Amino acid sequence: MKKFIIIQKAYILICIIFLLSLFLVSCEEKIEGYTKENDIYINDNSTAMVLILGKHANAMEIPEDAYNQIEKMLDNTVYGGYVCAVIVDSNPTKVELVKDKNFFMEDAKNTHKLKNEINDRKTTIFESLKELTVVADSEEVDLLAAIREAKNALSNSQAKNAKNKEIVIIDTGISTTGDLNFRDLDFLYGKPNINEIVQQLEDYEGVGVLPDLTGVDVTFIGTDDGLAEVAEPQEATTADKKFIRELWTSVITACGANNIEFERAAGWSVPNVYTEDDETRFQFVSVIPFFHNNVINFEEIPVYNPDNSDQPPNLPDPPIVEIKLESQTVGFEPDTAAYISEENAKNILRPYADELKDFFKYYPDEKIWIVGTTAAVVKGSRDGYDLSFKRAEAVKNMLVNEYGIPSNKLFTIGVGCVFPWWVDEFTSGEFDTNVAQANRAVFLLSNSDSGDYFDKLKHAYDNNELLPETMSRFASIYN
Q1: For residues 49 and 84, what is the distance between their CA atoms, to the nearest angstrom?
Q2: φ, ψ for residue 398, nearest 5 deg
């Protein structure tokens, strides 16, 4: 009897083991999103993805949170799909994140291996992406060209058989060259007409320049508006970003994309910025002056129609002109008065020149002072006059020669690093590059002593607090 019981228990145990093995095999052969054929798992949702990365000047460094969002999207790309990166500049560069041609193939034999392999492949891609040191190696930015390059990548032999196609864009959306060049758009009197811009791209030379994104999902990752954050000297207000987003939504829609989304990532705080002090791997990118309806915050000026009168109407007192142009905004070569890009400088100064023309039309007796300033690279130094004066002259020459502002209405003066609104660059004991950037500028000031900057400059002159060269120059102009 005892022997029978032992045999019975053994039989029951064998049955349990057998049933358990059948259950495990059953589980092994089923995994959501995958179909097993001839011992190989086929991804039912394989995805080819191209990551467009704006690793250029005038943009913030891509934060950890943005990379984490990409990692969550990789499951279907690393197994039976495809993924690569495109770096945005004037000649976008495709970068393969893995060199193994069989990396994306479906070759797992069981569920356990499949799950582990997906995680291993994600780790490989993610580490390659975060360690990617390739940055824009040419001046200017052409996002539309990068999208075309992404389209080409989605058509290659590895990507074309994927069931889904995706483009993920992490960029400011501010293009400064190519077929969609923001420098060619007129922001002076408001928002350019987006429909006209898209129409021109569609009809360009009768064939158009927009890539065919039929069946492709496009996702932007950035700040609250889904665009990567800009860095100084580029500025973009909420209204500017809204325009950029609306423009690219219309462009991507015109390309026939399946879907467009904008997602938020946190942590945009480290700039990829051009500076005068440090050698930088980031090439200079032209600054786009958005929406300069009120560049010189004038009081409302009565409408003057020269057809009805030879003289301007009765006007209120002239408004105070106080314009600050940081040296990296107009783009001076380090330690020189030469522009990095003449075209960029023209683009930056154009709206101010237009406003100055109106200003002098209504106030012909007024004058504008162009004041150059520099940083004190050495603590306690009292110099920089020559460079500051030459940069003020460079701005004047462009206003006169390119935009026709009368030279006798513009006075240039250099103050070096000795001026009353200078900000201490050595508060931490060491030279602070970021503070120094704010001290390197060219100011346009009206000759009224009621303006804040000019009033302080006049006070410093009256108290003999400026450089000797500045005192002499100031006296020759003011007196």
Answers
A1: 7
A2: -70, -40
